[in-house]
Amino acid sequence: MTGALIGRAHPAAALRAELDRAVASHGGLVLVTGEAGIGKTTLVTGLADEARRRGALVLAGACWDSGSAPGYWPWVQVVRALRRELPDEEWARTDTTTLSALLGETVGAPADDGFRLHDAVTTALAAAARDRPVVVVLDDLHWADAASLRLLEFAARHTWFERLLLVGAYRDVEVDAPDHRLHELVLPLVAKATTVTLTGLAPDEVAELMTRTAGTEPDPALAAEVHLRTGGNPFFVEQTARLWHSGSPVSAVAPGVRDALQRRLSLLPAPVTRLLIDAAVLGREFHRRVLAALAGAPAPEIDQLLARAAAARLVTTLGNGRFAFAHDLVRESRYAELDPAEARRRHAAVVRALDASPELAPLVFAADRARHAYLAGAEVDPGRAADLLVAAARDASARLATDESISHYRRALERATDPRRRVVIALDLGTVLSRCGENEEAWRHFEDAVALVRELDDDALLARAALTLSRTTPAGPRLALTSELLVSAHERLAGKPAEPLSLERVTLELTARAAALARNGDDDQELSFTLWARHDQIWGPGTARERERLTDELAVLAQRTGDRENEYFASSLKWVALLEQGDPRYLEQFRAFQALAGGSGLPGAEFAGLLDRSIIRAHRGRFAEAHADLDQVEERFGREFGYMMDHLRWSYLLLQGRFDDLAAGDHPHPDLLALLAAAQRGDAAAAREAAAVAGPFPREFGPLSLRCQAQVAALTGDREACARLLGELTPYSGEWLVALYGCEISGPVDLWAGLLEAALGRLDEAVARLGAAAASADRMRLRPWAAEIRARLAPVLVARGAAGDAERAAALLEAVRAEAGELDMPHLVSRSEPVVEKPVPANEFRRTDEVWSLRFAGREVRVPDAKGLRDLHVLLGLPGTEVPAVRLLAPDGGETVVAAKGIGADPVLDEAAKAAYRRRLGHLDEEIDSAADRGEDARAAELDREREALLAELRAAAGLGGRTRRLGDEAERARKAVTARIRDTLRKLADLHPELAGHLKSSITTGSSCRYAPDPAVRWRL
User: Fold this and answer.
1) Closest Cα to residue 1009, out of 838, 852, 889, 912?
2) Which ranges constitute the DSSP H helices of 901-966?
3) Residues contacting 29, CB < 8 A, separation 6+
4) N or C: where does the chain have the smaller number of CB atoms within 10 Å of the terminal CB?
5) Is the torsion defined by CA of 182, 187, 193, 199 positive or negative?
6) Which DSSP letter does residue 883 get?
7) Are the CB atoms for 170 and 140 separated by under 8 Å?
8) Smallest Cα–Cα separation from 582: which of 525, 553, 542?
9) Shortest CA distance to 371 belongs to which of 272, 251, 280, 253?
10) What percent of the chain has pLDDT over 70?
11) Structural Rg of the chain based on CA atoms
């Protein structure tokens, strides 16, 4: 039955179940409903075919959309078919007189609601059903006469226990209207029937139907467009597919589709159809309050009219006052009723309604407001249209919809008539085009803007044009044009300098003058541009305090103008400025930014939030989570963000010391990365070789380049370079080096200055600077950097050899070893003291914060933390050892807990054990207080975990009424719990890493004791 049907498996199964019952015992009434073209006839035809194959007698009738159809017309067809199918002697046993009258073969016609006729038809059908199942199919009941529906109700009521299945199909979207002539007659039928309602096909089903119809498979985007336009209506899809196959666009409307829509619309009251025209002007989706404002009608009246349209399934309710057309064909058919002039007037009316009621503006997307302004043509002021189009362009940019943003800017440029406005729009459009690689078109707009600026003789516009071009890294003749503009703008705002200035100095001074000029004006957009230009241009050591002030000013400005994109940018770059100053408040600001980005609903903000979170996590030592964040960024937003993702991954690996995993990817400066990697490894020869060919690097890499030069000079012992670089770094003592707008954090200035001091033999100064750097890293809670600095400080102390230096160095190394183990930075130990390196096992089973890195048989996966993974980690660390399940169940409780849960049926805790618990708890309280006083948070947390585990065991040892629980219960509970969570973890691993899951299943046994016994032995990096 479903072989030729697409997307109808469930409705077909429902009908088949009704047929099964009719064949086996008794029938009933089934109503198949849905809009025109949805597939009702196809579905019931399939049922009839299957019924015939199963030996049922199928009788069919269809209603006729004509006022001249005789009464009982569908039943006339059914009775005629019955007479053809029955043997003569069986037909003779029926009420032939009444049935012949129904068929028009005798004089006189049956009464419309005559009991005798209803009984005669019903009795004949019931008699036929005694010898075989009978299926009666009545199609298009929405066109039936009232008497036919009454007869259907009578038959359904009086044949319930016969093998007679009555099936009716009708358009509920028409009949369900309260004023439809059949509405009251259908209600009792619905109450008795099994109703099967057909809805539109899903997008993949639309694609399948298009392939079947046209013989060509559409691409997913085309199928999605057809689904959106047709609502998945199979008839509409087929008609559209045929047009597409003939070479027409899918936006064309087939005549059959147009006729079907017009028929549906003609059934609605005129006020509803007029309202739908206004709704069509608003777009596919619209808000009831905006529609009311456009129609000039009270909201309650609009609600009533929309309810009628929804009942006809022409619109659907989205919630919160929003509606949508069921499919675009409905909207387009209504919109086509407007001539071009009237359409422009209606779009202009939308703009005016929204301008007159600002509270409605949030209910309409910026792109929709811009569309109305553009389509209104001359009916809307050109300046107002340009404003709305620019606002839509900026909104699209915040949503990372670059192509949409460019389209809005182009339209804004087309609409704008004011020359100054055209300059700004052209510069903004060129900037967006430049960012996405469309340099030729970008520079056409730049050059047009510059030509217009020269005509206008406007100092502020000249400065804006010059600064805009300078941010695109021009070359050749374009660099010459940019330089000339910068110099000209600088002279106009600051006067001719007494002596020639470098282009960089000119640009810096110009940003300051332009910002001051904008602050004295009343153009918030101009002020925002100049502040960002100043912020970005001054970036480098020593400027973070000014950038912090600028981000504060920009945030206030963004809030005042409703510029959400600039608001989150300002919030993000403020934490960067605070970190660069070595100010621990950066973390508080970072969290404020995360809250702002997370609640914005803007893809651009979500992207920035994920990226910033990854950076913070990496530099706080949560490397696995940082990489997972980058994975999520690429999964959600792709890799269309230049080289930054590659740089971030590379910088995390470098900080962690995973030198063998470093890969430059698509980075534009692999020479810089190679030089840094050599320096960080401590390979002086490779660093010298790389330095010979590295550079120069762009300004945004400046702080990173300065760190690189200092590190290489200290490593190679270049005293001249050390002295020069020390002079450059010293003014920024206490700050951190940050490049690439926060995507590259290169550690505290005092770290690199300390290494330069040590290379120059000034060990006291080196110790002081490195100590200050370590203290700064501690305050900033950036653990990898704190460990890095202490690993470098220890050998300097040893080299200095002052009183207590050796002991201090030993203590530092001990702390570094512990920290390196926790952070998975083993290179720190090897750098600070000679060790015999052991080969790193190829297999890995390690946890960093809440993420596990699992590598086995050449495959690596990352999975979230789970108790079963922790159990496996313990077992892998003790190969061949029987580990009690009670130890795995309470790993933080120490040996006291394990001993208390030993095998046997004694009390879980006797009085001696309880006393031991109390003594240990007292000692733990003292140790926790001491660790907290010393600022040893990690140690305090570790002790607190043990304390909580002991308290949990004391609570667990008490049964009902305070009675002591028995040990056998505890051991059994541990066995079941540990076995269950290990098995659950292995089951999940089977999908993610089948090789690892298979190895663990074959080598681990569980029970009251668990054991890992691989054969042959396997080495793990734990």
Assistant:
1) 889
2) 911-933, 937-956
3) 152, 156, 166, 167, 168, 189, 192, 193, 194
4) C
5) positive
6) E
7) yes
8) 542
9) 280
10) 88
11) 40
Angle formed by the axes of helices 288-295 and 340-356, nearest 10°: 110
Residues in the chain: 1022
C-alpha 587/C-alpha 591 separation (Å) is: 6
247: which 2 tokens? 């070479």
Contact 186, 175 (CB under 8 A): yes
Q: pLDDT tens-digit profile of 855-912?
A: 998 888 889 988 899 999 888 888 888 888 888 887 655 444 455 544 444 454 555 5
Residue 706's Cβ-count burial label (10 Å; 0-12, 13-18, 19+) is buried
How many Å separate Cα 964 from the centre of its chain? 52
Q: What are the φ and ψ backbone dihedral angles of 965, each rounded to 5 degrees?
A: -80, 155
Q: Are 218 and 211 in contact (CB under 8 A)?
A: yes
| Both structure tokens of 794 | 């220890």
1018 vs 698: CA distance, rounded Å:
49
Cα dihedral value 1005, 1007, 1011, 1013, nearest 10: -20
Is residue 177 within 8 A of residue 183, CB to CB? The reply is yes
Would the pLDDT of 969 be above 80? no
Selection from 822, 858, 851, 436 nearest residue 632 by Cα: 851
CA pair distance 79, 62, nearest whole angstrom: 12
Structure tokens at 174: 């028409």
The letter for the amino acid at 995 is E
Nearest to 1021 by CA among 852, 834, 783, 815: 852
Q: Compute the distance between CA of residue 701 and CA of residue 668 in angstroms, rounded to an integer.
A: 11
Q: Does residue 831 carry a pLDDT above 90? A: no
DSSP 847-893: EETTEEEEEETTEEEEEE--HHHHHHHHHHTSTT--EEHHHHHSGGG
Determine the Cα–Cα distance for residues 240 and 529; give it in Å rounded to an integer: 48
H or E stretch covering 258: helix 255-266
Q: In one letter, which amino acid is 640?
A: E
Is 236:8 a contact under the CB 8 Å cutoff?
no
In Å, how far from its chain's centre is CA 466? Answer: 38
DSSP letters, 401-415, are: -HHHHHHHHHHHHHH
Burial grade of 352 (CB within 10 A; 0-12, 13-18, 19 or more): middle
CA pseudo-torsion sign 389, 393, 398, 399 = positive
CB 488 within 8 A of CB 501: no
Give the Cα separation of 270 and 461 in Å (integer). 54
Give me 154's structure tokens.
């009578």
Residue 749 pLDDT > 60, yes or no? Answer: yes
Report DSSP letters for 216-253, one per residue: SPPPHHHHHHHHHHHTT-HHHHHHHHHHHHTT--TTS-
Alpha carbon of 328 to those of 40, 120, 172, 226, 392: distances in Å? 22, 49, 21, 9, 23
C-beta of residue 75 within 8 angstroms of C-beta of residue 136: no
State yes or no: pLDDT of 396 exceeds 90: no
Residue 121: both structure tokens together: 């038809």
Q: Tens digits of per-residue pLDDT, 491-522? A: 888 888 888 888 889 888 999 999 998 888 88
Question: Measured at the alpha carbon of residue 22, what is the angle toward residues 19 and 26, in degrees to the nearest 5?
Answer: 150
Measured CA to CA, the distance from residue 502 to residue 512 in angstroms comes to 16
How far is it, in rounded angstroms, from Cα 265 to Cα 141? 19
Task: Give me 172's structure tokens.
Answer: 């509920």
Could you tell me which residues come within 8 angstroms of residue 568 by beta carbon, excluding any fewer than 6 positions away? 593, 596, 597, 600, 602, 604, 605, 608, 609
pLDDT in tens, 654-681: 999 998 888 877 788 888 888 899 999 8
Q: Which of 45, 63, 57, 111 is nearest to 83 (CA)?
A: 57
- List all residues 6 or more positions away from 329 whose beta carbon is below 8 Å from its beta carbon: 229, 230, 231, 236, 253, 257, 261
Helices (H) and strands (E) in the chain, counts: 49, 17
Q: Helix (H, G, I), strand (E, B), or coil: what is residue 280?
A: helix
Q: What is the pTM of this model?
A: 0.61
